[in-house]
Amino acid sequence: MAIYPALACNLDMHILQAGLPLFASEQVAALEWSFDSLYAQTELPDWFDELLLTYGQANRLVGHGVFFSIFAGRWRPEQQTWLNQLADRANRYRFDHVTEHFGFMTGASFHAGAPMSVPLNTTTLRIGQDRLHRIQQAAGCAVGLENLALAYSLDDVKRQGDFLHQLLAPVDGLLIMDLHNLYCQSHNFGVDWRELLALYPLDRIREIHLSGGSWEDSISEPGRIIRRDTHDEAVPGLLFDWLPVAIDQCPNLKYVVLEQLGRGLVTDAARLQYQADFTRIANSVAAHPKASVQGPAPAFRPETPVELPAQPLEDETLAWQQQHLTTILETAGSAHEARQQLAASPLAHSDWGTERWQPAMLETALRIAQKWTNGFSGLQ
Predict the structure, then answer these.
(1) Residues with Cβ within 8 Å of residue 276, at least 6 apart in sequence
(2) Which of 210, 206, 231, 227 is CA-nearest to residue 218?
(3) Which of 148, 212, 259, 334 has the fewest CB atoms within 10 Å, i.e. is most exposed?
(4) Can you give the pLDDT at residue 378?
(5) In the chain, what is the greatest distance between 2 CA atoms, to the nearest angstrom?
(6) Within 10 A of 110 (CB to CB), how many other CB atoms are there?
(7) Which residues have a Cβ under 8 Å from the Cβ of 225 and sit 6 or more positions away?
(8) How many angstroms separate the CA atoms of 145 and 164, rounded?
(9) Residue 313 carries which DSSP code?
C-alpha cells in the first residue's frame, strides 16, 4: 500500500500562506482537514470547497475531529449536532477515514476545552465504543483515534496502547500515531520511544502525525522540564530520525501528516521552516521501500453494521467525576491546591488513580485547561 505525505490544512490564513508553495509544486499528496473547526462559520469559500472536493474525489482526504469529547460521561446536544454536521460533510467531501482525539473535553463551551485522559476501565471502554460506532455511522467510512500526549502517570502511558486496541476492535478502527505525542511521553516519563511504540496496536496505525511543541519549566517539581504538544513550533529534528523506524513498524500505514497551528507560522522564517519540514517528510517517505509497494489495503470497517440504541450510553458517576475534575483544573491556583481538592473530591481513591498523578503533570493539565478557559485555541 502506497504512503502519502499530507498536510493538516484548515481554513487558516497563515497555514494556507505557508502551504501554497507546496501545493503549487504538487508535493501535497493528501490532505487532512479538521472539519469541526468551522463552528464560527456557516459556509466555506468556493476555492477551499473545491480544494476539499478535489482531494476527496481522489480518495486522499481525511477528516480529523477535535471537539467531540468521545469519553464524556453525559451525552450532550452538541455531540449530536457534531455527528449531524459530520454526516453532511462526509456526504459532500468523501473522507477516506475520520478520526478523533482520545480523551474528554474540559470546558463549559463545546469549543473551549482541552482533551484530557480518563480512567481506563470498563465504563470508559463501553462509552468510547458506543461513540466510535456513532461516528462511523455518521461518517460512512473508516474511523479511528489519535494517541494522547498528556498523561498523569507512567501507568497511564503504558496502558494507553492496549486500551486503544480494545476501543477500536469492535469498529475495526484505525489509529493515528502522533510521534510528537510519543516524544512528549518519552521525555516526560523517561521511557524509550521505541518501547512506548511497541505498546500500541501497530497493525492499526494508518496515519502518522509529525508536529512541534514547546518546553515548560515545572514549578511544583523544580529542575524538571516538561515537553508540551503545543503545535506552534517546527518539528524536532530527532522525529525525522524516528519516522523511518516507525514506518517499518506499521504495516498498514497510508498517510504521514505535518501539523502546525497557524499562530506558529506568522513570520517568513517560520513559513520557510514549515515548507522545509514538509519536504523532508516527503523525501523520507519517498525514500522508504514501503512507499511504492502496491497491495490490498485493510478496510478498517466491521463486516456487519451494528444496531445502535437510540439513546447513547451515559454514566452519571463518570460525568460527575469529570465535572469535578474540570472545575479543579480550571480554577486551582497551583498543583498543590489541585491535589488537595482532588483528595476531597469524588475522584479520590477511584479508578482515576489521582493519588499516583505526578505533580508536574497535574500542573501541566492546569495550565492547559486554564489557557482554554481564557480563550486559547489549540491542542495543548
Answers:
(1) none
(2) 227
(3) 334
(4) 45
(5) 58
(6) 18
(7) 215, 216, 217, 218
(8) 8
(9) P
Rounded CA separation 277/121 (Å): 39
Number of residues that this document lists for the chain: 380
DSSP designation for 221? S
Q: How far apart are CA 380 and CA 366, in angstroms?
A: 11
- Amino acid at position 215, single letter: W
Residue that is written with C-alpha cell 469498529 in the block? 171
Distance, CA of 114 to CA of 342 (rounded, Å): 19
Give me 96's grid cell.
Answer: 477516506
Q: Which residue type does 307 have?
A: E
Grid cell locating 350: 477511584
Q: SS3 for 62? A: strand
Residue type, 239: L
CB 132 within 8 A of CB 170: yes
pLDDT at position 37: 83
Count of helices and strands (H, E) across the chain: 12, 12
**What are the start-end ranges of the H helices in 171-235?**
179-189, 193-197
Mean pLDDT for each consecutive 10-residue tract of the chain (380 residues)? 93 95 97 84 87 97 95 94 95 97 76 80 97 96 96 96 96 97 97 98 98 96 96 96 97 96 96 98 93 75 81 97 94 96 97 97 93 56
Question: 6 near 30, Cβ under 8 Å?
Answer: yes
Backbone angles phi, psi at 54, to 5 degrees: -65, -45
Residue 56: name the closest of 9, 17, 21, 14 by CA: 9
pLDDT of residue 377: 46
The closest of 373, 371, 368, 315 to 346, measured between CA atoms, is 315
Q: How far apart are CA 36 and CA 86, in angstroms?
A: 8
Query: Which of 320, 358, 261, 340 lies closest to 104 in space, CA to CA?
Result: 320
User: How many angstroms separate the CA atoms of 263 and 327, rounded?
Assistant: 28
Q: What distance in Å separates the CA atoms of residue 101 and residue 253, rounded to the nearest whole number?
A: 18
pTM beyond cutoff 0.90: yes
Given CA atoms 245, 249, 253, 259 in this order, what sign does their dihedral have? negative
Distance of CA 303 to the CA centre of its chain: 26
